Amino acid sequence: MFRYIVDLPDGGKPTPKRKFRSTEPENYEVKVDKEELKQKLTPLQYSCTQEKGTERAFAGEYTDLKDDGNFYCVVCDNILFKSGDKFDSGSGWPSFSDMAGQGTVKSKEDYSHGMLRTEVVCAKCGAHLGHVFNDGPKTTGLRYCINSACLNFKGEAKPGL
């Protein structure tokens, strides 16, 4: 069995004793109504953010994007990642070496698929984003592997254009 456990800068350290779905209530600033989200999001966005689904590798809108800007949660518009931290991991999903700021994402244990991984969720609304692994660039050693369907990109205006 594979085990992927990542120590995150926010101090969230997974322990094998807890289950994937905690019985502790999740307190997020933004409360989401599932029926409203079904109307707002595409089926893929809903599946990824609310049902912990994933998009096919190399099929996401932002996998190869190299523009300057920021990536936001498709559910609540919380800033999650900056383009300066995006890198090509070859995994088929957008990868980031760091979160946009302290506490913009949270980590949770994920025991699905026969291994222990670290799930990444939006800290503001709890939407599933992807997973984080400890095989990233030397700057942080982290690789946030995120579904494009969970993100909105807002590019930065270029002077003179």
**CATH level-3 fold name:** Metal Binding Protein, Guanine Nucleotide Exchange Factor, Chain A
Give the number of domains: 1
Number of strands: 9
CATH superfamily: Peptide methionine sulfoxide reductase
* CATH architecture title: Beta Complex
Structural class of the helices, strands and pairings?
mainly beta
Task: Note poorly predicted spans.
Answer: 1-5, 13-24
- Shape, principal axes of CA atoms: globular
Strand content: 15-25%
Task: Determine Rg (CA atoms, Å).
Answer: 15 Å
Strand order of the largest sheet: 3-4-8-7-6-5
Amount of helix? under 10%
Characterization of this structure:
- The chain is 10% helix and 25% strand.
- The chain has 161 residues and is mainly beta.
- The chain has one domain (34-155): Peptide methionine sulfoxide reductase (Metal Binding Protein, Guanine Nucleotide Exchange Factor, Chain A).
- The strands form two sheets. Strands 3-4-8-7-6-5 form a six-stranded antiparallel sheet. It has a three-stranded antiparallel sheet with strand order 2-1-9, with no helix packed on it.
What key attributes describe this structure?
161 residues, mainly beta, Metal Binding Protein, Guanine Nucleotide Exchange Factor, Chain A, 6-stranded antiparallel sheet, 3-stranded antiparallel sheet, 9 strands, disordered N terminus, peptide-methionine (R)-S-oxide reductase activity, Met_Sox_Rdtase_MsrB
Summarize the SSE layout with pairings:
Elements: H1 34-40, H2 43-51, E1 69-73, E2 79-82, E3 86-87, E4 95-96, E5 105-110, E6 117-122, E7 128-133, E8 143-146, E9 151-155
Antiparallel strand pairs: 1-2, 1-9, 3-4, 4-8, 5-6, 6-7, 7-8
